[in-house]
Amino acid sequence: MNKSLWWLAAFIIVGVLLGAGIIFFVTRPPRGEPIVLLPVPTQSPITVYISGEIENTGLFTLPAGSRVDDVIHAAGGTTDNANLDALNLAKIVEDGEQIIVPELVISESNVDGTKPVNPSLILVNINTATLEQLDTLPGIGPKTAQNIIDFRNANGPFESIEEIQDVPNIGPVTFDKIKDLIATETSP
C-alpha cells in the first residue's frame, strides 16, 4: 500500500504543477505590442471634362482607373456624328483630364480618289507631340508613342508623315489609321 500512496502523491503533484502552469499561461499579460489593423486604402475618384460630339457635355466623376470609353458612357454616349476612330477608347484617364470627341466629316472623295482631311480635327505634330498626345492616336499605345519619341530623338525630325512607318511597331495598317490625324512642320 505504501507504493500506491507514492504513486497517488506523484499524480497529485504532477496534476498541481500542470494546473499551475495552465493557470500561469492563461492569466499572464500578453507580451509585445498589439497588432493594429489599418483600413484598406481607397483611391480617390477622378473628375474628367468631356465635350464635342457627346450627348451630355460636362464634368463627370468616375472611379480611379476609368478609361475613355467609361467617360463616354457616363456622358450618355456619343452623337451620330462622332469620330471614335480618332480616340483611344482604352486609354486610362487621369484626374482633371479633358476629352474632346471629334466630329466625323462624311464627304465625297477628292477628284484624285483620296479622302479629305477633317478640318475640325487638330492634327498631332509627330515632331513635337508629347507621349500623351501620341497615345491619343488610334493604334498607338504608350509603348509605340515612346518608340516614336525615341526614334525622332535618335534620327532627327520627320521630313514627312510617311517616315513614321520607320518606327518599330508602325506598319502600313497603323499608318492608314493615323495618316489623316498627323502632321510634320513640312506637311501641308
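the 2nd protein, sequnce then structure:
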Amino acid sequence: MTKATGPTSEPTPAPRQRVLTLPLVVFLVCVLLVLGYAARLALVPPTAAQAIVLLADGDADAEERQRLLRILVQQGQVSPSIGERWAGAVAAVALEDRDGLAAVRHGLGDGDVLKPLPASQEREFLHLGDPLLGNLAAAWLAEAAGDREAALMHWRQLAGQCWFVLHPLAAELAAAGVQRTG
C-alpha cells in the first residue's frame, strides 16, 4: 500500500450555499404581511366607525381624507347608529355637500336642531380631526342638549373661524345658529 503524497485527484466540493436562510424567510414573511395589510386597507372600505377614528387621528392625507368623509356621508344616511349619523352630517359639511347634509339630517329630524343626541362615547371624535368641524359639532350638540349659551358661544367661534377659512356651508350654518340662539 502506498500513500499519496501529492494533491488529491478530486477537489473537495465547495460548501453548499443556501439561498433561503431562516432570517431571509422571516423577513419575506413580514414584508408579505405588511403588503397584504396595505392591500386590504386599499381595497376594503372602512366602516363608518373606523372612518371616524381615522379622520379624528388627523393622519390622512387630503385625498384619503376626502374618501373617508365621503364614506361617512354615505354610511351616515343609512346607519342605525346615531353617532355615525351625526358624524355623517359633520362630514357632509366638511365636503360642502348640501344634498348629503340634507339626506343625513333627514334621519336626525328635519328641523334646525339635530335630534336625538348621540351617546357620550360617540361624541368623542365628532370633530373628525378638524377644529372648525369640532366647533360645528359642539354647537350642534349644545343646541340639541338645550344649552343655548354654549351653543351661541360655539356658533360664534365657528363664524369667526369661517372668516379665516373659506367654508361657505359652515359659515351659513354658523350665521343661522347665531341668529337662532342669540
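The two ends are 117 Å apart (CA to CA). The CA atoms of residues 19 and 25 lie 10 Å apart.
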